[in-house]
Amino acid sequence: MTGGSELPIASNADVVLVRQQVRSAALEVGLSLVDQTKVVTAASELARNALVYGGGGMARVEIVENGPRKGLKLVFSDEGPGIADVEQALTDGWTTGGGLGLGLSGSRRLVDEFDLVSAPSKGTTVTVTKWAR
Amino acid sequence: MTVDADVARRRIEELLRTNEEQILRRWTLITKATPEELTDLYQALNRALDSGGEDLADVRGLLAELSRSRARQGFTPSETSRAVFGLKEALYEVVEEDGGADALRGFIWFSRLIDDLGLFTFETYATAREKIILDQAEQLLELSTPVVKLWEGIVAVPLVGTLDSARTQVVMEKLLQTLVDTGAEHAVIDITGVPAVDTQVAQHLLKAVVAARLMGAECVISGIRPQIAHTIVTLGIEFGDIVTKASLADALAHALRRSGVQVSTPRGTRISVRTEDA
Description:
The complex is a heterodimer. Chain A contains 4 helices and 5 strands; from the N terminus they run βααββααββ. By secondary structure, chain A is of the alpha+beta class. Chain A has a 5-stranded antiparallel beta sheet, covered by helices on one side. Chain B is an alpha/beta fold. Chain B has 2 domains: about 1-140, Globin-like, CATH 1.10.490; about 150-260, STAS domain (Transcription Regulator spoIIAA), CATH 3.30.750. Chain B has 10 helices and 5 strands. In chain B, helix 2 packs across helix 3 (about 35-50) and helix 7 (about 165-180) runs parallel beside helix 8. Chain B is rod-shaped and about 100 Å long. The mean pLDDT of chain B is about 85. The interface of A and B includes residues 19 and 48 of A.
């Protein structure tokens, strides 16, 4: 499973589907229960961000390998307005949408690798990886 | 050209009228539908063609009914539209026997008409299915949010599944109404059945607790499993001074203690719970 699966994010129901897909992939990789819950929660946050702030987008779930270690790589992309100040967006408590302001910054703490590419009016792509221990 | 087309069309209409019995028998055989349904449809189609072929309202009405009933009975969409497309095959046999150029040319026209009707059937089928799904989702929403009474003055909301905005709205309304109806002063929100607590779920929970507090009720959140606790801490969500417990039993014990209820076991070994000075 190197190609991974692509899922659209266009409604709240799709966020639930992404979460289910990530959970079953996390099981396949052999993540512990705590890590499973963490990566599923991060997926939930990032998928919802793509939906709420990016007006919908795509999620890709991939199983990656680094030697004997297996991991789960998730890519969330949207073609929304993008993030003007990435530093600010990653600050705890910063929100433009009335949420808790912890989704993006919290997701970064929930995973092992976190990469955010965004530019105003170019959309946002977030790539995260969680490795099995 | 138009004269040709007209002649061809009239030839098909004629064939449909004169071979009604044969076509119907064949059509019933192909589609496995009831002869009554198909006869109604066939006659409506003939009537529509007689009156110029523009007014297909009757045919569409019958088709809509057919696809709706099939959607409810669990037929697949292809089975449903095949019921309509089967008429082409049934008619083709008659056209072949006839063998005339007019009949063959007319068959193309007829085939296009049936394709349109088939697509219409498919669309109605999809709409009917969507409606069924919507109805079920609504029923599920109602079903999945019970508020139960645990003790005099203590109510619990066991949450199972995904907590989205719509669901939380229903839960909150039900909880607040139950607090009014029962006069309960303690509410336990149990999230054992919620698979993941992200910032949105947490925010919804916090709002429910604040709303209950505004009405003078104490809220306890129970069912925080180790992995959930871990995730909440990593995300950085603060529950502030809201009481949280690992299990529903703990939450009930807490609520009983708070309301000053004494619990004793039958064998004389008394476990007494004293009221805390609030």
